[in-house]
Prior knowledge:
Elements: H1 2-32, H2 36-41, H3 47-52, H4 61-69, H5 73-79, H6 83-102, H7 115-138
Helix pairs in contact: 1-6, 4-5
Amino acid sequence: MENLMKTSRKTDNALYITGWVLIIAALSIALAGHPGLRFLLRLPPCLLHVVTGLYCPGCGGTRAVLALAQGNLLLSLRYHPLVLPSAAAAAWFMISQTIARLSRGRLNVGMHFREIYLWIALCIVIVNFLIKNLALLIRNIDLMPGQI
Length: 148
């Protein structure tokens, strides 16, 4: 059990540091008006979708991130239902870990990484993939609206 706790603490620390690096990088790019932001808008289309007309498990992810950044939560969920809960979980992880660390453990509210989160994410991705493609194949309904 003690070894499991050490591994969990190591994982939490690695995720916390990675989170701050990503936050600082994103803020730097956004504040500098970096052309890299425009790169996201010019990504090539999904090769699987171009060749087969079907959506891959990750289709809509970039558009979901852009919709979320614009504050359009429902559109973000429609593009890819994993982005919004992932952003919420990441935000709570960073906030709760910061509170726990600044209080030196007196306020033990820190969210911890659990493997179940990955399994839930995998289920969301699979269900999203199936619903979008079955709607397209069976009903000829395209659930992926046009570009932002």
